Amino acid sequence: MDPLYELCERDAVRVLVAEDERVLADTVAEGLRRLAMAVDVVYDGEAAIERLGVNRYDVAVLDRDMPGRTGDEVCRWIGQQEQPTRVLLLTAAAGIRDRVEGLGLGADDYLTKPFAFAELVARLQALSRRTGPALPPVLEQDGVVLDVARHTASRDGQILSLSPKEFAVLHVLLRAGGQVVSAEDLLEQAWDEHADPFTNTVRMTVMTLRRKLGDPPVIHTVPRAGYRLGS
C-alpha cells in the first residue's frame, strides 16, 4: 500500500491552497485530490480571502510570501473572522524567528519549503482533526466497513475497489449514521468548488457506489431529500 494512503485518514477534508508558485500549487492540489480531499486553489491573497468568505474550509495552506495581500494578512483575516479554519503557513524562511513569528500570527502550523508531500499530508490531517470531534478509525454499518487509516472498504467481508470520490461519499454517508444526507451536502464535503451543482455528478457517483456495494441495496434515495445508508 502507498504510504501516503496510510498517512491520509480520509476525513472528507476540504482544503484551500493559496500559493503564487502556480506549478507548486497545482501539483499539491492534484496530489491531495488523489487522496479524496476537496481542494480549491488560488494564487494570491486577495483571492484567498474571497474564497474563505464564501466557502467553509477545514485547513488553509497559505504561502507567507504571496504578492499583494500576503499569507500573513490572510492568516490575520481568518483570526478576525473567528473562523474554525486551521492555518498552515508555507515559507522559504527556515529560521526559528520566522517560525515563531508565523505562529504568533495565529497560524496553527508551519512548514518550510522545500517539503516532502507526505509530511504536508500528515500535517493537514492533524490540523483537520482539530476542526471537529474525533471519529473512530473504522466506521461500520449494515455490513459495510470503512477503515479510514488503511483506505480499505468492504461489505460482508468482501473488499471493494472504490474510486477516491466513491470512498469519500461512502465516508460521508457512514458518518451520518443512517441520517439523510442531501446531494448538496455530499457535493460540499466530497468535491471542490469547481464541481457544478447543476450536474448529475453526485447521482452518478452514488449510482456506481451502490452498484459496487451490491445487493441487497444499502444506499437508499430519499425523494426530494437526499441519500441514506442503512438496511
Short structural description:
This protein has 231 residues and is of the alpha/beta class. 40% of the residues lie in helices and 21% in strands.
Q: Tell me the structural class.
A: alpha/beta
How would you spell out the order of helices and strands?
Answer: HEHEHEHEHEHEEEEHHHEE
**How many helix segments?**
9
CATH hierarchy, class of the largest domain: Alpha Beta
Low-pLDDT segments, ≥5 res: 1-11
Strands in their spatial order, largest beta sheet? 2-1-3-4-5
| Large-scale geometry | elongated
Number of domain modules: 2
Tell me the number of strands: 11
In CATH, what is the homologous superfamily of the largest domain?
Response regulator
The biggest beta sheet is recorded as: 5 strands, parallel
CATH architecture call of the largest domain: 3-Layer(aba) Sandwich
What's the rounded overall pLDDT mean? 83
Give the percentage of residues in beta strands.
Answer: 15-25%
GO molecular function: phosphorelay response regulator activity; transcription cis-regulatory region binding
Protein name: DNA-binding response regulator, OmpR family, contains REC and winged-helix (WHTH) domain
Pfam family, one: Response_reg
Keywords: DNA-binding, Phosphoprotein
